[in-house]
Specification:
mainly alpha; two-stranded parallel sheet; two-stranded antiparallel sheet; 4 strands; 57% helix; elongated
């Protein structure tokens, strides 16, 4: 039982590392085009754009097959299954979290993660690649603590503004930039 739980936790941790590496290296540092970079560039340039679900499902199925066959060569089925449940369960958490960061009112306790992510979007795309954790940014030296994040008016989100100004409850964390 301890091995199954350890495998589950390893899967969760592996997803957070994969999230960081995919985002940093395929989304930003890779020269040229790739399957991830095109969608990611659109996400950075179009307010509240997310890749279509079918593309995410196809990528997850391919990754799942590769992981399943690779890991099952060295580990028993129960450990492979628990690893994959952790990995893809955390992927689901990532998708929900990332979508909520852009579209929904924040849970106050997670405002620091939202600022971390938006600093990456609107200030410096070579910093703060993590969405669900800041751990790997710290490990790999891409971490930056944002004071106040400037959100371009062209990218402002409905949860953030009222009457074209930052809502008072978010004013200590965010400000709008650009012309009215």
């Amino acid at each position: 039982m301890i091995a199954v739980i350890s495998s589950l936790i390893l899967g969760i941790t592996a997803w957070t590392l994969a999230e960081y590496l995919l985002h940093r290296f395929l989304g930003h540092e890779h020269k040229g085009r790739n399957f991830f970079k095109d969608e990611h560039a659109t996400h950075h340039s179009v307010a509240n754009y997310f890749a279509p679900a079918y593309k995410k499902i196809v990528a997850a199925l391919i990754a799942g097959c590769v992981l399943f066959f690779s890991i099952s060569m060295v580990l028993p089925g129960s450990l492979v299954l628990s690893f994959l449940i952790g990995f893809f369960g955390m992927y689901g958490v990532y998708e929900i979290t990332h979508y909520r960061f852009h579209t929904a009112h924040p849970f106050r306790i997670f405002i620091f993660l939202r600022k971390h992510h938006f600093y990456h979007h609107f200030h410096n795309p070579s910093k703060n690649h993590g969405v669900t954790t800041r751990l790997w940014d710290r490990v790999f030296g891409t971490f930056h603590v944002p004071e106040k994040v400037r959100v371009p008016r062209s990218m402002m989100m409905g949860w953030l503004v009222k009457d074209n100004e930052v809502k008072p409850e978010y004013a200590q964390h965010f400000q709008l930039s650009g012309r009215r």
